[in-house]
User: Which sequence fits this backbone?
């Protein structure tokens, strides 16, 4: 599909923001120097993932070298221009914080920069959702678009953070185990919100005045939705159950969970982009 690069960009960018917010909250709440050093190193993963998501978005452009034209769109507060600039500012803020910590620059201002990056991360989630809240696409033009995009950040970001922390379980010790259990609880709450919210979204979608049943728009849509819910439940459910029962250091389990939920969100996003077929005038 033509929108596949955007599928990867939106899911990876949102998941990366979720991962960053979890790690940033841990940094804000922790004063141990050794733990902070390890957590700061994990933020390099955030920069790598953000770079990959940005590269995916660039492949969608017919002429990538004209991406600089986004600056002119800011004059009219173009949603796409705001999204791209917010992505750049978020990445720049995370890089600035990592560089400040690595080189010991202005220690008293580091937490302020980290807080600013967290704020930009939240703005990025809203900016991406704003691009797709279009009156010309009735299936997108609702608060459910924001709900789905924000939930992706937590659905992907929480198990990804658990994976990153489990990779450092030897160094982090009891802190990692306690954090893993806390993340599992948060993951359970997130799973509950999605399993309640997504069926409600599909019910709302069925009430929208569309020329055809969105679940029957393509032959694979029904299977895609079942796969998304099944992968999501398996990915989060297995990890949450294992973590709450004391299995808090198995890196492989967290990796499988992250891959499953990432695949689930990609399935859901493909369905979402297919709904643009219902845009006015098409």
Assistant:
């Amino acid at each position: 599909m033509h929108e596949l690069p955007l599928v990867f960009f939106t899911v990876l960018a949102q998941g990366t923001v979720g991962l960053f917010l979890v790690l940033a909250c841990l940094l804000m709440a922790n004063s141990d120097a050794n733990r902070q050093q390890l957590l700061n190193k994990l933020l390099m993963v955030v920069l790598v993932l953000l770079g990959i998501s940005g590269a995916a978005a660039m492949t969608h452009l017919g002429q990538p070298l004209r991406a600089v034209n986004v600056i002119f769109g800011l004059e009219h507060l173009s949603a796409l221009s705001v999204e791209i600039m917010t992505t750049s500012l978020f990445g720049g803020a995370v890089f600035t914080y990592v560089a400040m910590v690595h080189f010991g620059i202005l220690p008293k201002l580091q937490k302020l920069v980290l807080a600013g990056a967290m704020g930009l991360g939240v703005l990025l989630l809203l900016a991406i959702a704003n691009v797709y809240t279009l009156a010309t696409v009735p299936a997108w033009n609702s608060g459910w678009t924001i709900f789905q995009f924000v939930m992706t950040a937590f659905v992907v970001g929480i198990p990804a953070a658990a994976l990153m922390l489990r990779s450092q379980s030897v160094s982090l010790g009891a802190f990692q185990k306690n954090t893993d259990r806390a993340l599992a609880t948060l993951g359970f709450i997130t799973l509950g919100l999605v399993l309640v919210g997504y069926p409600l979204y599909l019910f709302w979608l069925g009430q929208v005045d569309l020329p055809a049943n969105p679940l029957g728009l393509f032959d694979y849509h029904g299977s895609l939705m079942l796969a998304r819910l099944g992968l999501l439940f398996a990915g989060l459910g297995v990890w949450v159950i294992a973590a709450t029962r004391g299995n808090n250091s198995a890196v492989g389990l967290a990796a499988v969970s992250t891959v499953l939920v990432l695949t689930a969100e990609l399935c859901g996003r493909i369905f979402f982009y297919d709904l643009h077929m219902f845009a006015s005038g098409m």
About this structure: The chain has two domains: 1-132, 136-282. The chain has a mean pLDDT of 89.
